[in-house]
Specification:
alpha+beta, 3-stranded antiparallel sheet
């Protein structure tokens, strides 16, 4: 999937969640910016994430992000790669050490626009996060990367408490725990 492929998929993206519906036009517009996939676009840029779940959909793999000090899904910057599905898979491998990752569907699973606070290197900016649903085996060993404080398979029942009400994660959780969203 390149920039044009992403734009085409975004134009056909449908979701019952209002917050996602509100992002679609901005995501499509961003595909027109030559720097959309680069960190150098200081207002905001594309990122890609992996919502990693076990096959029976009872647990999600979360990372305790070192810089943000919050439990989140795995993912990261595109750094010029317009194939966000590839970015999500690469980030998932690098941040978890998992090898048996299986992309459930090549279609976008979720999108989210969120603010990233300023730090020593970058001003406050937006991440336009494109997310993909990935399955993995819970018995495979995990490797914590330098970007994380911890990794954990979190049961669906405890995800809301662990992520402290993060609405975008709760939305992905709902998509994988309700029968009408089964992928």
């Amino acid at each position: 999937m390149n920039r044009e492929g992403l734009k085409k998929i975004l134009k056909s993206y449908r979701t019952p969640f209002e917050e996602e519906k509100n992002f679609v036009a901005e995501f499509i517009a961003l595909t027109e910016d030559p720097l959309a996939f680069q960190r150098e676009r200081k207002e905001g840029h594309f990122t890609a994430s992996a919502w990693i779940v076990n096959k029976t959909r009872t647990h999600a793999l979360l990372t305790h992000h070192r810089k943000l000090s919050r439990w989140l899904q795995l993912g990261g910057h595109a750094d010029g790669n317009e194939n966000l599905m590839e970015v999500a898979m690469t980030e998932a491998r690098e941040e978890s050490g998992l090898i048996s990752l299986k992309l459930v569907d090549s279609y976008i699973f979720d999108i989210d626009k969120h603010i990233i606070p300023a730090n020593a290197k970058d001003p406050q900016h937006y991440h336009y996060d494109v997310r993909f649903l990935i399955e993995a085996a819970m018995d495979e060993p995990l490797t914590i990367s330098k970007e994380s404080k911890d990794l954990a398979w979190v049961s669906y029942e405890t995800v809301p408490d662990v992520v402290a009400g993060n609405e975008s994660i709760l939305r992905m959780l709902e998509k994988t725990s309700k029968s009408e969203f089964v992928y």
